[in-house]
Each structure stands twice: as C-alpha cells, then as structure tokens.
Amino acid sequence: MAGAIQEVSLATQKCDERFATGEFFDDDFVFGAETSTDEFICWSVRRFRGWRTVLTTSFGMEGCALIDMYASRQRTMQISYLDTGFFFKETYALIERMKERYPHLEFVNRGTTLTPEEQASTYGAELWKTNPDLCCRLRKVDPLARVLASADIWVSSIRRTQSPSRADTRMVEWDPRFEVLKLSPLAYWERDEVWQYVQDHDVPYNELHEKGYPSIGCTHCTVAVEGSTPSEYTRLGRWSGIEKTECGLHLIQSGSG
Ligand code: SF4
Questions:
Q1: What is the number of alpha carbons within 13 Å of residue 165 lying toward its C-beta?
Q2: Residue 43 C-alpha to ligand 1 middle, in angstroms?
C-alpha cells in the first residue's frame, strides 16, 4: 500500500512538472487503473485551485458518488446540471435530496431555456423520435457548450466500461471540442464499485436504479432493462430500438451527436 501511494505521488509530481511545461497529456498519461481516486481528486483540487472548474452531472449513480467525493474535499463547489425538461419525477426528487445532503454545494440548473412547446412548434412534434440527435443537441450538447465556454476544467463521472465509445477515457485529457481539460476520476471504476461506494457512504441515488433502470436520462428515451440490478450497468435502456447510444456530451473524437 505504501508503495502504491509512493508511486501515485511520483505520478502526481510528474503531472505537476508536465503542467508546468504546458503539456496536456495528448500522447500518453500517467494516471491509470492503479491510481487512487482519493489521491487523484486531492491532487486535482490542489493543482487546479483558482482554475474555473465545472462538475456536471445528470444525477446517475456515478455522478452522485463523484459529488460525494468532492463534497468532502471542497468547502464550496458549483455542480451544474442540464435539465432537459424531460427528467423523471424521481430524478427531480433526487436533486432535492442531493441539495439537502450537501448544503455547502451549489446545484445550478444550466439547462436549455427552449421549452418543449417551443421545440415542438419550431422543429416538429416528438423530435426525440424524428431526429433524436437534434433533440439531444438542442437540450444537452448546446447547453453544455455554453456552460463550458467559461470553464477551464470539466469534471465528469464517466467510466470506461459504460460503453465502447467511453473505453479510452483518460483520467486527464484535453477535450478539443469544448476546449477544456477534462477530468474523469471514475474512469477505471466498475459499476459494482460505484454501487458499493454509494451504500458505504450513504449517498443519495435515483430510486429508479432499483426498478430496472441502470442508466437514466429523459423519460422519452429511457426504458427499464429486464433483470437489471443497481450493481450492473448497461446502456440498453437508452434510446431503445434505435442505434443511438450517446447523447453527444462525451464524444471527444467525433464531435457529433
Ligand atoms: S435523450 Fe431523448 S428527449 Fe432527451 S434530449 Fe435526447 S433525444 Fe431529446
């Protein structure tokens, strides 16, 4: 254990040196599966103090766990979320529980101001069926771009094993699309570890996870997955019946929905 901590300390030292020279881990990275998430978060809080940092969440189980990790290390922090207007009532209830649990954090809705009615009138009824990529762009990607336009650091809770498109996620990487340094402290976590964490630390989570919803988005595009349990993750319940698997927030390479 002492050896592992020393190794991570050397890694953080190396990171500090590389940041001092302006390198942003485009070619390789020094944090990996063996990195202590605890130390990584402590390092990032120290290293990026004074940088404009945004933690975004959609209040999935991973996001709630990550908020808890930062909450114990930050006296104040702004948590941004993008209310699409199509959240489940259970998600709105969870947001209120998170606010009560972490009163020193500021939860800010940075979602679209385009109402569902305006969207229907401009782009047609049920856009999530006729053009889900456009719907996601209007209600998720464009609002996120506005949030990140004034940020230096974007903290995200995505994990490598959530989907093939997230398999190469690094704990520190440059996001050329939004032009921010992206931190993903949970990149190497597995879902059962996240589930264990929220139980051990009494972290609020969406009760839909216990009703067969491993991944939770908008009501129009999320269904339960038969046999699913909170400790298992799949995106099968998202955009069921069409090829779409991502809303477009975390596609570093393609830049499309
Ligand atoms: S998940 Fe569905 S309803 Fe939500 S923004 Fe994307 S297409 Fe629209």
A1: 16
A2: 35
The end-to-end CA distance of the chain, in Å, is: 42
Q: Is 190 inside any structural domain?
A: yes
Cβ-count burial of 159 within 10 angstroms (0-12 exposed, 13-18 middle, 19+ buried)?
buried
Q: For the domain that residue 200 is a member of, what is the CATH number?
A: 3.40.50.620
Query: In 3-state terms, what secondary structure has residue 104?
Result: coil
Residue range 48-87, pLDDT digits in tens? 888 899 999 999 999 999 999 999 887 788 999 999 999 9
192: Cβ contacts below 8 Å, ≥ 6 apart: 231, 232
Q: Is residue 100 part of a domain?
A: yes
Residue-level pLDDT at 252: 55
Does 95 fall in a domain?
A: yes
Given a cut of 50, the residues of the chain with pLDDT beneath it are 1-5, 26-28, 253-257
Burial of 243 (0-12, 13-18, 19+ CB in 10 A): exposed
In a domain, 231, yes or no: no
Does the C-beta of 136 come closer than 6 Å to ligand 1?
A: yes
Q: Tell me, in angstroms, the distance from the centre of ligand 1 to residue 139's CA.
A: 7
Q: Which residues of 46-101 form beta strands (DSSP E)?
A: 53-57, 77-81
Domain count, the chain: 1
Question: Which numbered atom of ligand 1 lies nearest the CA of 247?
Answer: 6
Q: Is residue 210 exposed (0-12), middle (13-18) or buried (19+ Cβ within 10 Å)? A: exposed
Atom of ligand 1 nearest to the CA of 138: 5
| Domain range for 158 | 32-221
